[in-house]
């Protein structure tokens, strides 16, 4: 898999929704929580980190990176 993975979180119908492939997650709390739920479905908890990179209108974009690669390449 190529990193970073970019994920778009959309705010629609009073919920934040995101997906990677066919795996979906949502939250009524925040876009960050929606991305964290998506990561927990795809990888073991605590192995990846999402960083917000942009926000515009009803869409928030995040980069997902494995924590071990962030440490290896000095990205935090």
Automatic annotation (TrEMBL):
It comes from Thauera phenylacetica B4P. This is Uncharacterized protein.
């Amino acid at each position: 898999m190529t990193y970073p993975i970019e994920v778009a979180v959309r705010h629609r119908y009073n919920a934040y929704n995101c997906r990677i492939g066919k795996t979906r997650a949502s939250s009524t709390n925040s876009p960050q929580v929606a991305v964290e739920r998506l990561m927990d479905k795809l990888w073991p908890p605590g192995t990846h980190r999402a960083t917000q990179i942009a926000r515009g209108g009803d869409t928030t974009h995040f980069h997902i990176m494995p924590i071990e690669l962030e440490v290896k390449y000095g990205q935090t």
